[in-house]
UniProtKB/TrEMBL annotation:
<dbReference type="InterPro" id="IPR036663">
    <property type="entry name" value="Fumarylacetoacetase_C_sf"/>
</dbReference>
<feature type="domain" description="Fumarylacetoacetase-like C-terminal">
    <location>
        <begin position="92"/>
        <end position="322"/>
    </location>
</feature>
<comment type="similarity">
    <text>Belongs to the FAH family.</text>
</comment>
<keyword id="KW-0479">Metal-binding</keyword>
<dbReference type="InterPro" id="IPR011234">
    <property type="entry name" value="Fumarylacetoacetase-like_C"/>
</dbReference>
<dbReference type="GO" id="GO:0044281">
    <property type="term" value="P:small molecule metabolic process"/>
</dbReference>
<dbReference type="InterPro" id="IPR051121">
    <property type="entry name" value="FAH"/>
</dbReference>
<dbReference type="Pfam" id="PF01557">
    <property type="entry name" value="FAA_hydrolase"/>
</dbReference>
<protein>
    <submittedName>
        <fullName>2-keto-4-pentenoate hydratase/2-oxohepta-3-ene-1,7-dioic acid hydratase (Catechol pathway)</fullName>
    </submittedName>
</protein>
<dbReference type="GO" id="GO:0003824">
    <property type="term" value="F:catalytic activity"/>
</dbReference>
<dbReference type="GO" id="GO:0046872">
    <property type="term" value="F:metal ion binding"/>
</dbReference>
Length: 328
């Protein structure tokens, strides 16, 4: 188990920030490959109780974390510890339809020919829609923190869910309270990055009883465990440029998603800036940046109990989540 967890939590830079559990005790820690350093007793860091305590003071504690990683004693093996989500956000912002190829694939998958358009026309209309969208703000909605689970936890498929699908995404972790930040300055309020898998019940996105009301993201996105997050927060200093990171998701060993963040319609800075014009961003908040092509619905292959999703993003480690039925 140690070898697999070490591989999954491998990350860019000398250290990453994690939330770990040793039995009932939860503590913030630095992670460096197969070693962890408990930060609870660090007087230099103000004896933080959780990663949220550090994110509230991120600009001040970042150089201390660097120094601690280089000089501190007391590292212990990662083996035997439970890796939790690295953050407990107060707010979760989720960008929708933000990868060009993904938008086209979903449009084609939902097309039933009832409007008389051919597949080629549907594709052309989707491309034209993206060109138009670039003249307007990104499309962002909110998720619930209660959907979050750890990077290696089981994903529970709801008994009444019919089309559970995967959506691997890069997430920005906010490290500074921010309101109306410009796109040029938006990355300055980002503490770092983490991996999320923003699972979706496809059949619940659009309600047939009220089609004029639009997407029902509450029902589609927020089942418990539908947002595996982590394994760690990799500081932005270790991955300063998110514009060309590779996202890869395998289902039972078969590659399903494999795309670069280059395919984003709106870049990370634009999404963060937009969120800050609508709401006040708080330290520890998650800003999800959309999912690339390769989801299950266009493939006609959705999640079933027993499936295992293995997900990686360049420099951020990896996730491994097994799907189980709610009745189990």
């Amino acid at each position: 188990m140690l070898a697999s967890v070490t591989q999954l939590i491998d990350h860019a830079g000398d250290w990453a920030l994690a939330r770990l559990a040793d039995g009932d005790r939860v503590f913030p820690a630095l992670v460096s490959r197969d070693r962890v350093l408990d930060l609870c007793g660090s007087s230099a860091l103000g004896s933080p109780r959780d990663t949220g305590d550090l994110l509230d003071r991120w600009d001040d504690v970042l150089p201390v974390l660097d120094e601690t990683a280089r000089t501190a004693d007391g590292w212990r093996p990662l083996a035997g510890l439970h890796v939790l989500s690295p953050v407990e956000p107060r707010q979760v912002f989720q960008a929708g339809a933000n990868y060009r190829t993904h938008v086209i694939d979903i449009a084609v998958a939902h097309a039933d020919g009832s409007d008389g358009r051919t597949v080629e026309q549907v594709r052309a209309d989707a491309v034209a829609e993206m060109d138009t969208r670039l003249q307007h703000p990104p499309y962002v909605f909110q998720g619930l923190p209660s959907a979050i689970c750890g990077a290696y936890d089981d994903v529970v498929l709801p008994l009444d869910g019919q089309q559970p699908d995967w959506e691997l995404e890069l997430a920005a972790v906010i490290g500074r309270r921010a309101r109306r930040v410009s796109p040029d300055d938006a990355l300055d309020v980002v503490a770092g990055w983490t991996i999320v898998n923003d699972l979706t019940l496809r059949e619940r996105i659009f309600r047939r009883d009220a089609p004029a009301l639009g997407a029902d993201w509450l029902a589609a996105k927020n089942s418990p465990t539908f947002l595996p997050t982590g394994p760690a927060l990799v500081p932005r200093t270790a991955v300063p440029d998110p514009s060309d990171l590779r996202l890869t998701l395998r289902l039972n060993g078969e590659v399903m998603q494999d795309e670069s963040t280059k395919d984003m319609l709106f870049d990370v800075a634009r999404i963060v800036a937009h969120c800050s014009t609508v709401a006040t961003l708080l330290p520890g908040d998650l800003v999800l940046t959309g999912s690339p092509a390769g989801n299950g619905l266009p493939r006609g292959r959705l999640l079933r109990a027993g499936d295992v999703m293995d997900s990686t993003i360049t420099g951020l480690g990896a996730q491994a989540n097994r799907c189980i039925s709610e009745q189990d």
